[in-house]
Design brief:
Layout (H helix, E strand, L loop, with lengths): L26 E5 L6 E5 L3 H4 L5 E5 L1 E3 L3 E6 L5 E11 L2 E7 L9 E4 L4 E8 L5 E7 L3 H8 L25 E4 L11 H9 L3 E7 L22 E5 L1 H12 L4 E4 H10 L10 E5 L14 E5 L6 H10 L1 H13 L10 E4 L1
Parallel strand pairs: 1-17, 3-12, 3-14, 4-11, 14-16
Antiparallel strand pairs: 1-2, 5-6, 5-8, 6-7, 7-10, 8-9, 9-10, 12-13, 13-15, 16-17
Helix pairs in contact: 6-7
Length: 341
């Protein structure tokens, strides 16, 4: 299986630069797992495809304003930092630009020294470990000094940073939003529950590894970066009950999907707990627990496109993407949605 097998041509103007005014007014492409048929609907029509007894699984991670701009204490040179994951208390794994001169021992000041950082190590793929010093609460300082880490293909400034959060975002720790969840409003979630569909929460803190390009020709040689997940006891019970009673587990987004598949045993039982996962799902993978998936449209040759191809079949996904381009769907983080069931 070659990485180039997952390439498709996307006109630049179809990359959504801004979120829609109303979250749930996006379009929805429905792809049937039974016969590969495609329907073009609106996101609120998702209710028509769900049945009482199903369980919708959402990722309640919260994006932190992880992009910081500072300057080197010695030279005054500008430095951009992206917090990727907390290693321990005040030590974070970070992406640093420009990286060449960011050597261990270098000190960086942010916000007139309200936050200080020292590079303590250079690790995999040139990422840095940075130890931060500050007075007060780190999250409050980050909220004041940091910016939302929008993907590089979004060039417009985000006016309201809450639009890069799901309405149910709760546990801080992500460097990117679980974007399939951006389409849900409190009203729509209420309607989901009123129809007898249960909603379960899992947490996976999204790192940039999910979005890193695949740099190898042979798909199976690609290695995913690890991300931290949590599945609570009560949520595992709810999801397992759904399966036992013949309901479907509908994953909202690839991050919820990866969490569920990472925490499940081979016989399809979800286990409560927490840990790090580097699961890589590509065609040939046998799903243990996920029956259906709500997702956005993903970048060509990306691991996310490979994941949806594993669920629906590569040829079907490529046909669906071709149809989405023809119908002028909006792509990527702020774009339209797809329901595979």
């Amino acid at each position: 299986m070659k990485t180039s097998d997952f390439y498709y041509d996307l006109p630049k103007e179809l990359i959504a630069q801004d979120p829609l005014k109303d979250r749930s007014s996006s379009r929805l492409l429905h792809l049937s797992l039974k016969d590969g048929s495609i329907e073009h609907r609106h996101f609120t029509d998702i209710l028509d495809y769900m049945k009482p007894g199903d369980c919708l699984v959402i990722n309640d991670t919260k994006v932190i304003p992880a992009r910081l701009y500072g300057h080197k204490e010695e030279t005054g040179a500008l430095i951009e930092i992206l917090l990727l994951k907390r290693r321990e208390n005040d030590v974070w794994e970070c992406l640093v630009k420009p990286g060449k001169k960011a050597r261990p021992g270098a000190r960086i000041l942010f916000g007139d020294g309200r936050l200080k950082g020292e590079i303590i190590d250079v690790i995999d793929e040139g990422n840095r470990l940075i130890h931060f010093e500050y007075d007060g609460i780190f999250e409050e300082i980050l909220d004041a000094l940091g910016e939302m880490p929008l993907p590089p293909y979004i060039t417009h400034k985000l006016e309201d940073k809450n639009r890069y959060q799901t309405v149910y975002a709760k546990h801080e720790g992500s460097a990117a939003a679980p974007t399939a969840g951006l389409h849900f409003t409190p009203e729509l979630l209420k309607q989901v529950e009123e129809r007898g569909i249960r909603i379960a929460h899992v947490t996976l803190h999204v790192g940039l590894g999910t979005f890193r390009p695949v740099k190898v020709d042979d798909v199976e040689q690609h290695h995913m970066h690890s991300e931290f997940y949590v599945v609570e006891e009560e949520q595992a019970r709810l999801i397992n009950e759904t399966k036992k009673n013949g309901g479907r587990v509908i994953s909202v987004g690839t991050t919820s999907c990866r969490t569920l598949e990472s925490a499940s045993s081979d016989d399809g039982i979800l286990k409560a707990g927490s840990g790090w996962t580097d699961i890589f799902i590509y065609p040939g993978y046998r799903f243990k627990i996920v029956d259906a998936l709500i997702t956005n449209f993903h970048l060509p040759e990306s691991t996310l496109l490979m994941l949806v191809s594993a669920l629906a079949g590569k040829d079907r996904i490529m046909k669906a993407y071709e149809a989405a381009v023809q119908e002028r769907y909006r792509f990527f983080s702020f774009g339209d949605a797809m329901f595979i069931e």
